[in-house]
Amino acid sequence: MYYIIIIVFMGLSMIVSARLKSKFKKYSQSPIGMTGAQVAQKMLRDNGINDVDVISTPGALTDHYNPANKTVNLSDWVYSQNTVAAAAVAAHECGHAVQHAHAYTWLGFRSKMVPALNISSKIMPWLIMGGIFLFYSSGNSLILIIGIAMFALTTIFSFVTLPVEFDASNRALKWLDTARILNREDHDKAKDALKWAAMTYVVAALASLAQLLYYLSILNNRRD
Ligand SMILES: [Zn+2]
Most buried among 66, 80, 168, 175, by the most CB within 10 A? Predict the structure, then answer.
């Protein structure tokens, strides 16, 4: 049963990421009048944000907002391309900067979880592996329970990520509309691209939940 669930989620995430790639490739062929960097700078200005820098960062799909040093980091192609796809990504990352400026609840909650996750992610796999071994060999469940509790934290984190990501895209699309950066047709393309980007987070959260339930079932089966 567990292997079936793993295969289903691996399949799902492969389908979603392939779909995302093809959407971005397609919408990278729709030119607009501004580069991703210009879109980002304008969106920040329009939202009254003057203390956030827009910089380019190497690699693909490396786009992110860094709240620590207040920078919108755009991958090289998003930074320099003047396409619907680049505008969508740039505006989405600025959406996170706007969340930060407005102290958006879920973003703050997510940021507060990061230090605990950084520590637990290093020891959690060992606790779960060792915990399962110990549990089956001696019946002692303490280590496994601690490992599962840490894993539950990562599952919660992946679900807290969802409203943050959806909200950033909503802010992006709303602004792209009101600032008249995109026409009706291009707006639909941007919406579609961001929808598939968000889907990757949904699949990751569900996969994490499935894994958590699996660990809990190990604990439960043995107890019966
Ligand atoms: Zn995001």
Answer: 168
Q: Evaluate if residue 48 carries a pLDDT over 90.
A: yes
pLDDT in tens, 11-24: 999 999 999 999 99
Number of domains in the chain: 1
Token duo for residue 224: 């019966």
pLDDT at 223: 53
The per-residue b/e assignment along 160-185, b for 16 or more CB within 10 angstroms, e otherwise, is bbeebbbbbbebbbebbeeeebbeee
CA of 141 to the centre of ligand 1 (A): 37
Rounded Cα–Cα distance for residues 63 and 127 (Å): 32
Contacts of 128 (CB under 8 A, 6+ apart): 144, 147, 148, 151, 215
Helix (H, G, I), strand (E, B), or coil: what is residue 173? helix
- 185 catalytic per annotation: no
Catalytic residue (choose from 43, 91, 93, 194): 93
User: Residue 125's domain spans which residues?
Assistant: 2-223
Q: What is the mean pLDDT of residues 156-160?
A: 96
E-only strand ranges, the chain? 53-57, 64-66, 71-75
Residue 15, pLDDT score? 95
Helix, strand, or coil (residue 57): strand
Ligand 1: distance of its center to the CA of 128 in Å? 30
Q: Distance from the CA of 143 to the center of ligand 1, in angstroms?
A: 34
Tell me the CA–centroid distance for residue 92 and ligand 1, in Å. 6
**Identity of residue 144:** L
